[in-house]
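Re: that backbone. Tokens:
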């Protein structure tokens, strides 16, 4: 998806990508895991499910309990830089 369907709220205003991984071997990242509040723990998870190099699903774990608090189509207004 090139245009976010919805903007997500994150724990903070910064974005530090902790992981960008190519899980299907096509040479492009398709999973991004990020920290937005500077505590070193992931709270933003993004996935490219159709191999076009763009985020299709964004999940936010606001309380960092391991369960997503919000799931939206698209990049949620937070496109990855990698």
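Recovered sequence:
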């Amino acid at each position: 998806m090139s245009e976010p369907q919805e903007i997500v709220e994150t724990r903070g205003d910064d974005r530090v990508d902790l992981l960008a991984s190519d899980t299907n071997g096509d040479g492009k990242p398709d999973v991004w895991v990020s920290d937005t509040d500077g505590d070193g723990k992931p709270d933003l998870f993004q996935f490219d499910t159709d191999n076009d190099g763009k985020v299709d699903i964004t999940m936010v774990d606001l309380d960092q309990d391991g369960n997503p608090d919000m799931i939206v189509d698209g990049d949620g207004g937070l496109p990855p830089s990698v």
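The CA atoms of residues 25 and 40 lie 27 Å apart. The first strand starts at residue 16 and ends at 21.
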